[in-house]
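Researcher: Let's walk through a ligand-bound prediction step by step. First, I give you the protein sequence. Second, the SMILES string for manganese (II) ion. Third, you return the three-dimensional complex as structure tokens. Ready?
Model: Ready.
Researcher: Here are steps one and two:
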Amino acid sequence: MTDALKRLIQAAQQPEKADLIIQNGTVVDVFSLETFEADVAIKDGYIVGIGTYPNGKQVVDASGKYVMPGFIDGHIHIESTMVTPSEFSRALIQYGVTTVVTDPHEIANVAGKIGIDFMLEDAANADMDILMKLPSCVPATPFEQNGATLTADDLRPYLTHPTVIGLAEVMDYPSVLNANPDMLEKIRMTTEAGLEVDGHAAGLPDTALNVYSSAGIRNDHEAVTAEEAIARVRRGIHVLVREGSAAKDLLALLPAINERNSRRFSFCTDDKHLDELAEEGTVNYAAQLAIQHGLDPLIAIQMATLNNAVCHGIQEKGAIAPGYLADILITDSLETLHPETIIKDGRVLELAALKNSRAVVPEAVRSSLHLKKVTKAALQIPLQKGQKAWVIGVVPGRIITEKIAADVQTEDGFFVADPQNDQVKMVVCERHHQTGSIGAGIVSGLGLKRGAIASTVAHDSHNLVVAGTNDEDMLLAIEEAERMQGGLVIVDGGKVLASVPLRVGGIMSEKTYEEVIVELHVLHEQLATLAEESQNIFMILSFLCLPVIPRLKLTDKGLFDVDSFQHIAVGIPM
Ligand SMILES: [Mn+2]
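Model: Step three, the predicted complex:
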């Protein structure tokens, strides 16, 4: 350690000893939101100097270009891209995202510690720095059945792992409010280790923000309005502005951001489908979008770099300054932000030679579907003729849903789908312990006109969720999902039209990101024959099971009213 320090100090004093010099560039100073001409000296993967350096062992000429920090994503679930961490890194690093803060609660809900171990091992093979926060709520609530339970004792050993930087989104607000001993121990042990605790305050009132901030939970990515963002900033809660595939909050939150408070905002993704990610990136895209809508480019860059590092207590990342890690982008435009050169750990990254070795998937994770046979009778929703029902209403561009009291079609005392009125049946089948537990409900706004779709990506318990216009296609979709041991399936007229196998816990593919993109394109082509707006229908479906996001959701135990935090019947008493 001392020798390493000596080498940095020596190179700072004598930059000719630096490993790499970036010359003639315009440095983006994210501390004071300005740019200035200077050379940058790099030694042993660290920036050791900013000044005028005529020589160095290796020189990169940045004449006419900007030199800025590598992008940091403040919160992302890699599993939502449906590829493993090392493949995720290969797909995304080309956009200049050199570090992500990830929460592996998806695979943890399926496979517990074995799932976390796989993610840590696979992430270690990546060019990108994939930093992890420990999943705080597995299961997310007691109102669903997932694949594993993680207590404070289960998590504690991971706190000393070199890439673990804190506790991930605390979604179970009642467990904090009621001072649940295990939840308080998770928070305590994390803050005692000097690490940060992430929030998840979707739809919570200001009093709940007081509870979270008082409990040491001081960042949140669930604000969906400018008012909600300001309420968080005023209580010392850092606001992560989310722009993903299903949740697109950036434009709504932009009005809240100004030069005075910009340090309390940063960009995150949460969940993004692979094809969109490979097409446009993540927080780089969010920064571009913000700039296109009037945000000062330097503030946007600060929100995609330094502010995320500060939010998560990552000391050596997020800026171009001595002592910071040399994760650097060289670009010709502060608007498009597309990096021409990416420097990672002080070395110029060769995009044609990215790391691509992957961890072995444990057999228990490869065969994670333990589903009791599903019968047609189990799919039925008893309703009397003329009886109104509570219907889950999809909200475009949001993962919140509406709770709608609606007239629905019935036949012989059971609900029947009414695709013309965009009302279809939805079931969640428990698939971890063969309990046969099945929740059934009605969803409107999914846009499914024919057939059925099934998925084992169903936040957060990742049971098997199926939506359909008829029972026969729904049953076939369930059978195909089980045969594949997890994945996405579309069925119409008694035939499987397309599928994307996801063997890693039923939520990630074993294939390369390029192969999965091809499978997704075929899936979307076939989906277009069944549904309007088919691009994100599986991502939307995956959030209809999440009982910590308002208002009305469906778990394997039935319809769940998030506001009253309890299960309710589908039929409204006549
Ligand atoms: Mn999730």
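Researcher: And what stands out?
Model: The two ends are 74 Å apart (CA to CA). The mean pLDDT is 96.
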